[in-house]
Design goal:
Layout: H1 2-20, E1 23-24, H2 35-40, H3 52-55, E2 69-76, E3 82-88, E4 90-92, E5 95-112, E6 118-136, E7 141-154, E8 157-171, E9 177-191, E10 199-200, E11 204-212, E12 218-224, E13 242-243, E14 250-251, H4 258-263, E15 266-272, E16 278-285, H5 286-292, E17 303-310, E18 314-324, E19 327-337
């Protein structure tokens, strides 16, 4: 109850700070860092297993199955952009701790002066180094929190900050239904790119539910994201009312409906648990599809897929996220429990 009361008090603070103050810095915090996230098109915050990548998004998912797990994820995007994450978990009397490193490298860029003379090359990258802790309240409820130091280097410009996160997880006694809640990126910048910048972190409130069919190997999940901001639909500011040539009536600019605004918050996920060692994944993100699709050739924008294979001591995961005709995201994840490598 104390944790619930804290979230109720915290929510309006998050809402107003995100909606009305400044612009967002460190947008990389809301990227997908794992093969599983890319395969599902978004974070799976309502399943508590031994997957450290999901615990990185909802620290309440850390549990006894996470202990001694080591995981690395690497994604390759167009134009040499790479995304990576490394995490590990260990147990203490206070709960399960997990140090996490995330980064995005944007590759090399050519530098020119105002007259067009080439000055050389420069690099750009974003990164975070943090720690999460998860604690089991009882058999059905877990809570967690996280703390990260942020860095961003763009040519000669740099920014640094700190972020906090909180999460909760609850499951039904039959283990078929579960729900998760997380608040990410609460924090501040203690050094911005310029002295005149007043950037805010991209706070993201998420809620998700998952349901495993009792007599079929399917698990369905829905993720609600950016719940701290009601309207996340892009509205073209250049559109203006038009006029009917016959009647002279004004035709107003079309605005998004209530249903459309809801859909932009939702990410739909399906996992086919084909066997103990094989899982197939499929995801659809409506917001991503609407933002990235080509009007005449939308293709598979917003869709994603992937697979997970469990070997004796290593788990291999692959995720494929389709952005548009312009590019895709291929990601690979490897995880293992270091305790399995001990000689018996």
């Amino acid at each position: 109850m104390k944790f619930l009361a804290f979230l109720i008090i915290l929510y309006p603070v998050i809402f107003f700070s995100q909606t009305y103050v400044g612009s967002n810095a460190f947008a990389f915090l809301n990227a997908n860092y794992s093969a599983r996230s890319n395969a599902l098109g978004g974070n799976l915050i309502a399943i508590q297993d031994n997957d450290l990548s999901m615990a990185a998004e909802n620290p309440a998912l850390l549990n006894s199955k996470s202990v001694r797990m080591l995981q690395i994820n690497q994604s390759i995007l167009p134009n040499g952009i790479s995304i990576g994450m490394l995490n590990y978990a260990f147990n203490t009397k206070y709960g399960v701790f997990a140090p996490i490193i995330k980064y995005i490298s944007y590759g090399n860029f050519e530098s020119y002066d105002e007259t067009g003379n080439r000055l050389g090359t420069f690099t750009a990258c974003d990164y975070s180094i943090g720690m999460s802790i998860g604690r089991t309240v009882n058999k059905l409820i877990s809570i967690g929190s996280s703390l990260s130091i942020l860095g961003s280097n763009l040519e000669t410009y740099s920014a640094y900050g700190m972020t906090l996160g909180f999460g909760a997880f609850i499951k039904h006694p039959n283990d078929l239904f579960s729900a998760g809640f997380s608040v990410k990126n609460i924090g501040f910048t203690f050094k911005d790119y310029t002295t005149s910048s007043k950037s805010m972190l991209p706070i993201n409130v998420q809620a998700g539910i998952s349901y495993k069919l009792k007599y079929a190997p399917f698990r369905f999940s829905i993720l609600g994201q950016q719940l701290n901001k009601w309207n996340i639909v892009y509205e073209d500011p250049n559109l203006k009312p038009t006029y009917d040539a016959l009647t002279g009536d004004t035709i107003p600019v079309k605005t998004s409906s209530f249903f459309t605004k809801i859909m932009h918050h939702l990410n739909f996920q399906v996992e086919l648990l084909a066997s103990k060692n094989t899982t197939f994944r499929l995801g659809f993100d409506y917001h991503r599809r609407q933002q990235l699709k080509l009007l005449d050739r939308p293709g598979m924008a917003g869709f994603s897929t992937g697979i997970a294979l469990n070997f004796k001591k290593i788990k291999f995961e692959y995720g494929f996220l389709y952005y548009s005709k312009a590019g895709q995201n291929h990601s690979i994840g490897l995880s293992t429990n270091l305790g399995d490598w001990k000689k018996k």
